[in-house]
Amino acid sequence: MDTLISLQVFRLVAELKSFAAAGRRLELSPAMVSKHVMHLEQRLGTRLLNRTSRHVSLTESGTLYFEQSKQMLDALEEVEAAVTKATVVPRGTLRVSGPVWLASPAFVGVLADYRSRYQDVNIELDLSGRLVNLVEEGFDLALRASNSPGDNLIARPIATVPFYLVGAPKYLDRAGSPQKLSDLAAHALLWYSLAPTDVPWPALAHAPAEKVSFTPVLSSTNESLLHLAALQSMGLALLPKWLIEQDLQAQRLTRVLPEQAWCKATLYGVYPSRKYLSSKVRTFLDFLVDDPRLK
After folding, report:
1. What superfamily would CATH give domain 161-263?
2. Which of 1, 26, 136, 173 has its CA 20 to 30 A from that of 38?
3. What is the pLDDT of residues 135-159, one digit of tens each?
4. What is the distance between the alpha carbons of residues 295 and 284, in angstroms, rounded to a whole number?
5. C-alpha–C-alpha distance, residues 246 and 124, integer Å
6. pTM of the model
7. Residues 21-42 pLDDT 10s
8. Residues of the chain with pLDDT > 90: what percent?
9. Separation in Å, CA 107 to CA 87, 130, 164, 193
10. 282-291: b or e for each residue (b if 16 or more CB lie within 10 Å)?
Protein backbone atom coordinates (compact mmCIF):
# COMPACT_ATOMS: atom_id res chain seq x y z
CA MET A 1 0.00 0.00 0.00
CA ASP A 2 1.05 3.61 -0.53
CA THR A 3 2.44 4.72 2.85
CA LEU A 4 1.82 8.41 2.13
CA ILE A 5 -1.87 7.73 1.48
CA SER A 6 -1.99 5.60 4.62
CA LEU A 7 -0.54 8.52 6.59
CA GLN A 8 -3.23 10.84 5.24
CA VAL A 9 -5.94 8.32 6.12
CA PHE A 10 -4.52 7.82 9.62
CA ARG A 11 -4.40 11.56 10.27
CA LEU A 12 -8.04 11.99 9.31
CA VAL A 13 -9.13 9.04 11.47
CA ALA A 14 -7.24 10.53 14.42
CA GLU A 15 -8.77 13.99 13.87
CA LEU A 16 -12.34 12.76 13.37
CA LYS A 17 -12.03 9.91 15.91
CA SER A 18 -13.94 7.69 13.53
CA PHE A 19 -13.09 5.19 10.77
CA ALA A 20 -16.51 5.68 9.19
CA ALA A 21 -16.31 9.48 9.18
CA ALA A 22 -12.82 9.39 7.67
CA GLY A 23 -14.05 6.96 5.03
CA ARG A 24 -16.93 9.23 4.07
CA ARG A 25 -14.62 12.24 3.81
CA LEU A 26 -12.13 10.32 1.64
CA GLU A 27 -14.75 8.27 -0.24
CA LEU A 28 -13.24 5.03 1.05
CA SER A 29 -14.96 2.07 2.66
CA PRO A 30 -14.42 1.59 6.41
CA ALA A 31 -12.64 -1.65 5.57
CA MET A 32 -10.16 0.17 3.32
CA VAL A 33 -9.61 2.85 5.96
CA SER A 34 -8.85 0.09 8.46
CA LYS A 35 -6.39 -1.53 6.02
CA HIS A 36 -4.47 1.71 5.67
CA VAL A 37 -4.16 2.09 9.45
CA MET A 38 -3.15 -1.58 9.82
CA HIS A 39 -0.50 -1.03 7.12
CA LEU A 40 1.10 1.68 9.23
CA GLU A 41 0.85 -0.37 12.43
CA GLN A 42 2.52 -3.35 10.75
CA ARG A 43 5.20 -1.11 9.29
CA LEU A 44 5.94 0.42 12.71
CA GLY A 45 5.38 -2.73 14.75
CA THR A 46 3.10 -0.95 17.23
CA ARG A 47 -0.58 -0.18 17.73
CA LEU A 48 -1.50 3.40 16.84
CA LEU A 49 -5.21 3.42 17.67
CA ASN A 50 -7.40 1.91 20.35
CA ARG A 51 -10.62 0.73 18.75
CA THR A 52 -14.00 -0.16 20.23
CA SER A 53 -17.39 -0.39 18.56
CA ARG A 54 -18.12 3.24 19.49
CA HIS A 55 -14.82 4.92 20.18
CA VAL A 56 -11.43 5.49 18.54
CA SER A 57 -8.52 6.98 20.47
CA LEU A 58 -4.79 7.34 19.98
CA THR A 59 -2.36 5.14 21.88
CA GLU A 60 0.75 6.72 23.36
CA SER A 61 2.72 5.68 20.26
CA GLY A 62 -0.14 6.85 18.07
CA THR A 63 -0.13 10.29 19.67
CA LEU A 64 3.58 10.73 18.99
CA TYR A 65 3.22 9.44 15.42
CA PHE A 66 0.19 11.64 14.78
CA GLU A 67 1.87 14.84 15.95
CA GLN A 68 5.02 14.23 13.93
CA SER A 69 3.30 12.97 10.79
CA LYS A 70 0.73 15.77 10.64
CA GLN A 71 3.56 18.32 10.66
CA MET A 72 5.16 16.50 7.76
CA LEU A 73 1.88 16.31 5.81
CA ASP A 74 1.11 19.98 6.45
CA ALA A 75 4.58 20.91 5.24
CA LEU A 76 4.16 18.73 2.15
CA GLU A 77 0.89 20.48 1.29
CA GLU A 78 2.61 23.85 1.64
CA VAL A 79 5.48 22.78 -0.62
CA GLU A 80 3.10 21.42 -3.24
CA ALA A 81 1.12 24.64 -3.14
CA ALA A 82 4.25 26.72 -3.60
CA VAL A 83 5.36 24.60 -6.56
CA THR A 84 2.00 24.49 -8.29
CA LYS A 85 0.97 27.99 -7.14
CA ALA A 86 -2.24 26.49 -5.88
CA THR A 87 -4.08 27.56 -2.75
CA VAL A 88 -3.94 25.18 0.19
CA VAL A 89 -7.38 24.85 1.76
CA PRO A 90 -7.04 24.83 5.57
CA ARG A 91 -8.38 21.60 7.01
CA GLY A 92 -8.25 19.35 10.06
CA THR A 93 -8.49 20.10 13.76
CA LEU A 94 -6.93 23.33 15.02
CA ARG A 95 -5.97 22.92 18.69
CA VAL A 96 -5.63 26.27 20.45
CA SER A 97 -4.84 27.21 24.05
CA GLY A 98 -5.78 30.57 25.54
CA PRO A 99 -6.75 32.57 28.63
CA VAL A 100 -10.16 32.11 30.27
CA TRP A 101 -11.39 35.56 29.21
CA LEU A 102 -11.30 34.67 25.52
CA ALA A 103 -14.76 33.24 26.19
CA SER A 104 -16.16 36.64 25.22
CA PRO A 105 -18.69 37.85 22.64
CA ALA A 106 -16.05 39.54 20.48
CA PHE A 107 -13.80 36.50 20.25
CA VAL A 108 -16.66 34.05 19.71
CA GLY A 109 -17.89 36.26 16.87
CA VAL A 110 -14.48 35.99 15.22
CA LEU A 111 -14.48 32.21 15.69
CA ALA A 112 -17.90 31.92 14.05
CA ASP A 113 -16.81 33.97 11.04
CA TYR A 114 -13.56 32.01 10.66
CA ARG A 115 -15.43 28.70 10.79
CA SER A 116 -17.93 30.01 8.24
CA ARG A 117 -15.11 30.78 5.82
CA TYR A 118 -13.00 27.67 6.49
CA GLN A 119 -15.53 24.91 6.94
CA ASP A 120 -12.95 22.10 6.77
CA VAL A 121 -11.31 23.33 9.98
CA ASN A 122 -12.63 22.14 13.34
CA ILE A 123 -11.51 24.23 16.31
CA GLU A 124 -10.62 22.73 19.68
CA LEU A 125 -10.11 25.39 22.37
CA ASP A 126 -8.53 24.93 25.79
CA LEU A 127 -9.40 28.05 27.79
CA SER A 128 -8.20 26.76 31.14
CA GLY A 129 -5.61 29.56 31.23
CA ARG A 130 -2.77 27.15 32.02
CA LEU A 131 0.62 27.42 30.34
CA VAL A 132 0.57 24.47 27.96
CA ASN A 133 3.55 22.78 26.34
CA LEU A 134 2.69 23.18 22.68
CA VAL A 135 4.81 20.35 21.32
CA GLU A 136 4.34 17.75 24.05
CA GLU A 137 0.59 18.33 24.36
CA GLY A 138 -0.09 18.57 20.64
CA PHE A 139 -1.35 22.15 20.42
CA ASP A 140 -1.05 23.99 17.11
CA LEU A 141 -1.17 27.44 18.67
CA ALA A 142 -1.33 29.26 22.00
CA LEU A 143 -2.88 32.69 22.52
CA ARG A 144 -1.05 34.35 25.40
CA ALA A 145 -1.50 37.76 26.97
CA SER A 146 1.98 38.44 28.28
CA ASN A 147 5.07 40.61 28.00
CA SER A 148 7.09 37.38 27.69
CA PRO A 149 5.02 34.99 25.56
CA GLY A 150 7.57 32.17 25.71
CA ASP A 151 11.22 31.38 25.12
CA ASN A 152 12.22 29.49 21.98
CA LEU A 153 8.80 30.15 20.45
CA ILE A 154 7.60 32.31 17.58
CA ALA A 155 5.27 35.03 18.86
CA ARG A 156 3.07 37.14 16.61
CA PRO A 157 1.28 40.12 18.21
CA ILE A 158 -2.47 40.07 17.58
CA ALA A 159 -4.03 42.87 19.59
CA THR A 160 -3.62 45.08 22.64
CA VAL A 161 -6.34 44.37 25.19
CA PRO A 162 -7.08 47.12 27.74
CA PHE A 163 -8.33 46.25 31.21
CA TYR A 164 -10.97 48.38 32.95
CA LEU A 165 -11.94 48.64 36.59
CA VAL A 166 -15.72 48.18 36.67
CA GLY A 167 -18.60 47.80 39.06
CA ALA A 168 -22.36 47.23 38.83
CA PRO A 169 -24.54 50.34 39.28
CA LYS A 170 -26.24 48.68 42.27
CA TYR A 171 -22.88 48.19 44.00
CA LEU A 172 -21.77 51.77 43.24
CA ASP A 173 -25.06 53.14 44.56
CA ARG A 174 -24.50 51.19 47.78
CA ALA A 175 -20.76 51.70 48.30
CA GLY A 176 -20.15 54.93 46.44
CA SER A 177 -17.96 55.52 43.41
CA PRO A 178 -14.21 55.90 44.10
CA GLN A 179 -12.86 59.33 43.23
CA LYS A 180 -9.16 58.53 43.63
CA LEU A 181 -6.90 55.48 43.86
CA SER A 182 -6.66 55.53 47.66
CA ASP A 183 -10.47 55.14 47.85
CA LEU A 184 -10.11 51.56 46.58
CA ALA A 185 -8.81 50.45 49.99
CA ALA A 186 -12.35 50.88 51.36
CA HIS A 187 -14.04 48.94 48.56
CA ALA A 188 -14.85 45.29 47.98
CA LEU A 189 -12.52 44.10 45.24
CA LEU A 190 -12.85 40.97 43.11
CA TRP A 191 -9.34 39.93 42.23
CA TYR A 192 -7.37 37.68 39.91
CA SER A 193 -5.56 35.32 42.28
CA LEU A 194 -2.20 35.32 40.51
CA ALA A 195 -1.87 39.12 40.63
CA PRO A 196 -0.33 40.86 43.68
CA THR A 197 -2.64 42.87 45.92
CA ASP A 198 -0.02 45.39 47.05
CA VAL A 199 1.25 47.12 43.92
CA PRO A 200 1.92 50.68 42.74
CA TRP A 201 -0.94 51.41 40.38
CA PRO A 202 -0.12 53.16 37.13
CA ALA A 203 -1.19 56.75 37.65
CA LEU A 204 -2.19 59.60 35.40
CA ALA A 205 0.52 60.96 33.15
CA HIS A 206 1.00 64.00 35.38
CA ALA A 207 1.06 62.12 38.70
CA PRO A 208 3.36 59.52 40.31
CA ALA A 209 2.33 55.92 40.79
CA GLU A 210 0.42 55.29 44.00
CA LYS A 211 0.50 52.12 46.09
CA VAL A 212 -2.87 50.82 47.22
CA SER A 213 -3.17 47.89 49.64
CA PHE A 214 -6.37 45.90 49.91
CA THR A 215 -7.81 42.51 50.81
CA PRO A 216 -10.04 41.03 48.09
CA VAL A 217 -13.50 39.79 49.09
CA LEU A 218 -13.25 37.23 46.28
CA SER A 219 -10.17 35.83 44.57
CA SER A 220 -10.09 33.47 41.59
CA THR A 221 -7.93 32.49 38.63
CA ASN A 222 -11.09 32.47 36.51
CA GLU A 223 -11.86 35.91 35.07
CA SER A 224 -15.31 34.76 33.96
CA LEU A 225 -16.22 34.09 37.60
CA LEU A 226 -15.00 37.55 38.61
CA HIS A 227 -17.05 39.02 35.77
CA LEU A 228 -20.21 37.29 36.97
CA ALA A 229 -19.51 38.34 40.55
CA ALA A 230 -19.19 41.97 39.45
CA LEU A 231 -22.55 41.71 37.67
CA GLN A 232 -24.02 40.43 40.95
CA SER A 233 -22.82 43.61 42.71
CA MET A 234 -20.25 41.83 44.87
CA GLY A 235 -17.58 44.48 44.24
CA LEU A 236 -15.21 46.06 41.76
CA ALA A 237 -13.23 43.98 39.26
CA LEU A 238 -10.38 44.70 36.84
CA LEU A 239 -11.41 42.91 33.65
CA PRO A 240 -10.42 42.82 29.96
CA LYS A 241 -12.44 45.01 27.63
CA TRP A 242 -13.37 42.04 25.39
CA LEU A 243 -15.17 40.36 28.25
CA ILE A 244 -17.23 43.34 29.43
CA GLU A 245 -17.78 45.51 26.36
CA GLN A 246 -21.44 44.55 25.95
CA ASP A 247 -22.08 45.03 29.68
CA LEU A 248 -20.67 48.56 29.48
CA GLN A 249 -22.84 49.36 26.47
CA ALA A 250 -25.94 48.00 28.24
CA GLN A 251 -24.96 49.81 31.48
CA ARG A 252 -24.91 46.56 33.44
CA LEU A 253 -21.39 47.60 34.45
CA THR A 254 -19.84 51.05 34.86
CA ARG A 255 -16.19 52.04 34.50
CA VAL A 256 -14.59 53.26 37.72
CA LEU A 257 -11.81 55.87 37.63
CA PRO A 258 -11.91 55.82 33.80
CA GLU A 259 -9.15 58.43 33.55
CA GLN A 260 -6.76 56.03 35.27
CA ALA A 261 -4.11 54.31 33.13
CA TRP A 262 -5.06 50.73 33.96
CA CYS A 263 -3.03 47.82 32.65
CA LYS A 264 -2.99 46.62 29.05
CA ALA A 265 -2.04 43.19 27.78
CA THR A 266 -0.68 42.30 24.35
CA LEU A 267 -2.25 39.12 23.02
CA TYR A 268 0.23 37.00 21.08
CA GLY A 269 -0.21 34.02 18.84
CA VAL A 270 2.56 31.63 19.86
CA TYR A 271 3.74 28.58 17.94
CA PRO A 272 6.86 26.40 17.95
CA SER A 273 8.35 26.99 14.51
CA ARG A 274 7.84 28.84 11.25
CA LYS A 275 9.04 25.75 9.40
CA TYR A 276 5.87 23.78 10.05
CA LEU A 277 3.31 26.57 10.11
CA SER A 278 0.25 24.97 8.54
CA SER A 279 -2.35 26.80 6.49
CA LYS A 280 -4.94 26.38 9.25
CA VAL A 281 -2.67 28.15 11.78
CA ARG A 282 -1.61 30.85 9.35
CA THR A 283 -5.15 31.67 8.22
CA PHE A 284 -6.42 31.69 11.81
CA LEU A 285 -3.71 34.11 12.92
CA ASP A 286 -4.31 36.35 9.90
CA PHE A 287 -8.03 36.32 10.70
CA LEU A 288 -7.44 37.41 14.30
CA VAL A 289 -4.98 40.14 13.37
CA ASP A 290 -7.24 41.62 10.67
CA ASP A 291 -10.57 41.56 12.54
CA PRO A 292 -11.60 45.05 13.77
CA ARG A 293 -13.63 43.58 16.65
CA LEU A 294 -10.41 42.69 18.42
CA LYS A 295 -8.94 46.19 18.25
Report:
1. Periplasmic binding protein-like II (3.40.190.10)
2. 136
3. 778 889 999 987 776 667 889 999 9
4. 16
5. 25
6. 0.68
7. 888 888 899 899 999 999 999 9
8. 53
9. 27, 19, 18, 24
10. bbbbebbeeb
